[in-house]
Design brief:
Length: 661
């Protein structure tokens, strides 16, 4: 086998250099070691044929009496892992053996962090994050166990979280197929797994091990996420240590049972108990009311039964994979209260008067009267992707959807609901949006949403086919900028709580505004076309001068400006990329997400907000400050104001906001 002088197994093994692996596996390039341990070394590389990043794990040489049997078993198990297809399991793409007889396995590359780093950075995880991560790990284990695969090394370091908040269980490629007669102790007495997470039966030679050993490790990991500590000895339960829901105690206790028969038998059972926490609130004991002198309190009606929990699977998914990644942050503060007249009216519900237990008893104060929200019976139900209310104006209905999609997908989603992306056709409609929409836009990423305007081949049009006549551009120069490119129309809530128009990239994902039309359509009936006008010589000369001026402006000013702006944006993106790499390595996920969103804004030619949000990371604020002050140092980043259609006033020049181009 391998003639490496350090062939004393994993303990004395030196991982190969990236350059050596490049020569052994030329179908991959850009090699970079990202981890190394007793189970091998992990490298990030690029698969040249598909131009995608992959993670390649190289195993240390195996010291065994029959290495040929070990290699054959590895290949059989790798084939089985490659057939596993589940969104919460890291995919296996390929495996093999190098010319110098090193085994390797090629897996999906996860751009993000792992739960161990999150615990190390934060001390412990928020309770809802720990709940959601555990639920998705249970989903992955359910799939694996039902396909006869036991992981045997569940621990925080093997649970990865990508930049979108998705949970991925890693190292399934090194698990063993479940054999009822197979022990987890090797012939040399070495136990598979990490000691703190190993179930008791794994340590017993000859003891059969199955998927319940993974569930023991899940219990340890849940305790670790909730408390930041590893349970050992006579440990305190999570509720005693952290004051969380006592139902977590029961889950940890049952998952970590030493008696396998008393432990959770399947990960479905564990997941079901997690769903109960997610969907059934804790019953809080009400403080005792003081009885009035000389009598007893009237008998209280029994409390209503708790709700059932068929929504557990949906609710757990919302925690992790909703529009914003809940594992990493909640970027916005509490949602502002929308203007009540625009949404609903409130009236008290009718209640029966309280019946005293006896006529001699003194009266007891009534409980607060509940209220009923009356909604428009004609309003649509709205999008299932949005928790924001459906608003009404002039017989039309509107809803902001926070899930981020490009305009094409957003329009398809709108059409599936009988709606379309919103259009704006009058000053009255714009005024209504200025008054009503900002509180809702400030609840979505970057305070902006896509609407139904599209520019193709230099011509603006609405997705509904309505005339694109009414406009309210904050900067008229952006309307005709970069004529060779297509753009979409987006609206942004500015710091003055008004709705601004702006350009957006066609492929960028962002929130969007839906509109349901009502009969009659708000599009006015077409009127008879006016008679054709004969152009005078003076008007023709003015038109030619205007065309000549605009051509010169494009050639001598705008093209130079775009070149300077492109150079500035390239430098800014490089700085963002360096900062993103540093924050990702430090497991600072909120900061990393903010930097990634900033890069998407720049690459989609979207304007930066006029003011920084209060929760914007300090590093990003510094980068933005440098970016915004660049125009003062480069005259090419200043633009002239393009003349308005009317020529009866002199031209004016001013400095335009840099990000708008």
């Amino acid at each position: 086998m391998n003639e490496n002088p350090q062939h004393d197994g994993a303990l004395g093994w030196t991982p190969p250099a990236p350059e050596h692996l490049q020569a052994m596996l030329p179908q991959y390039d850009q090699w970079e070691m990202i981890g190394c341990g007793g189970m091998g070394a992990v490298y990030k590389a690029r698969q040249t044929s598909l131009d995608r990043l992959v993670a390649i794990k190289v195993l240390p040489p195996q010291v065994a009496e029959d290495e040929a049997e070990y290699v054959e078993r590895f290949k059989n198990e790798a084939r089985t892992m490659a057939k596993m297809n589940h969104p919460a399991i890291v995919a296996v793409y390929d495996f093999g053996e190098t010319s110098d007889e090193l085994l390797y396995i090629v897996m999906e590359y996860i751009d993000g962090t792992d739960v161990a780093k999150m615990i190390q950075a934060q001390g412990k995880l928020p309770v809802d994050h720990a709940l959601a991560i555990t639920a998705h790990v249970c989903d992955a284990l359910t799939y694996a166990h039902e396909h006869g695969v036991v992981h045997r090394d569940i621990k925080p370091a093997n649970i990865l979280i990508n930049m979108e908040g998705a949970v991925k269980v890693a190292d399934f490629g090194l698990a063993r197929m479940h054999d009822p007669g197979q022990s987890s102790v090797t012939e040399e007495g070495t136990t598979m797994g990490t000691p703190d997470y190993v179930a008791p039966e794994v340590l017993i030679i000859g003891m059969a091990v199955d998927g319940r050993a993974d569930l023991y490790a899940v219990g340890v990991m849940l305790y670790n996420m909730l408390t930041g500590k590893i349970p050992s000895g006579n440990f305190q339960m999570p509720s005693e240590k952290m004051g969380c829901d006592t139902r977590y105690d029961a889950i940890v206790r049952k998952a970590m049972e030493h008696d396998v028969a008393r432990r959770y038998q399947t990960s479905r059972e564990l997941r079901r108990d997690l769903d109960q926490i997610l969907t059934v609130p804790v019953a809080k004991e009400k403080p005792a009311r003081q009885a009035p002198a000389g009598g007893m309190l009237p008998r209280q009606p029994p409390p209503p039964p708790p709700p059932s929990s068929p929504w557990g699977m949906i609710a757990a998914a919302v925690i992790v994979l909703g529009g914003a990644a809940v594992f990493f942050m909640q970027r916005d503060g509490p949602p502002p209260t929308p203007p009540a007249p625009e949404v609903a009216s409130v009236e008290p519900a009718k209640q029966e008067p309280p019946q005293p237990a006896s006529a001699a008893m003194p009266p007891v104060a009534d409980a607060p009267v509940p209220v009923i929200v009356k909604t428009d019976p004609n309003a649509p139900k709205g999008s299932p992707l949005s928790k924001l209310p459906v608003l009404s104006y002039n017989g039309h209905y509107y809803q902001v959807v926070s899930d981020r999609m490009n305009q094409s997908n957003a329009q398809k989603h709108a059409q599936s609901l009988g709606a379309h992306l919103a259009t704006i056709n009058s000053q009255a409609e714009q005024d209504w949006m200025n008054r009503v929409l900002p509180p809702f836009l400030k609840q979505v990423s970057q305070w902006m949403a896509t609407i139904g305007g599209v520019r193709e081949k230099g011509v603006w049009q609405w997705v509904t086919g309505e005339p694109f006549e009414f406009t309210r551009w904050e900067d008229a120069t952006v309307v005709s900028s970069e004529p060779e490119k297509n753009f979409i129309l987006k609206i942004t809530a500015n710091s003055n709580s008004k709705v601004e128009w702006g350009l957006g990239g066609t492929s960028a994902g962002r929130a969007f505004l839906l509109e349901w039309d009502a009969a009659p359509s708000k599009t006015p009936a077409p009127s008879a076309p006016p008679p054709p006008m004969v152009e005078s010589e003076g008007a023709k000369r003015l038109r030619e001068l205007d065309a000549s001026f605009r051509a010169a402006l494009e050639r001598d000013v705008l093209a130079v400006h775009r070149t300077a702006l492109g150079d500035l944006n390239s430098k800014y993106l490089a700085a963002l990329d360096r900062a993103l790499s540093a924050e990702t390595k430090a497991a600072h996920l909120p900061e990393a997400l903010a930097l990634r969103e900033e890069a998407q804004l720049i690459t989609s030619h979207s304007p930066l907000p006029a003011e920084d949000a209060p929760d914007l990371p300090a590093h990003l604020k510094t980068l933005r400050s440098t970016y915004r002050t660049s125009p003062s140092e480069n005259p090419a980043l200043h633009l002239p104001h393009q003349p308005a259609p009317h020529r009866d006033r002199p031209r004016q020049w001013h400095h335009l906001p840099l990000p708008e181009v």
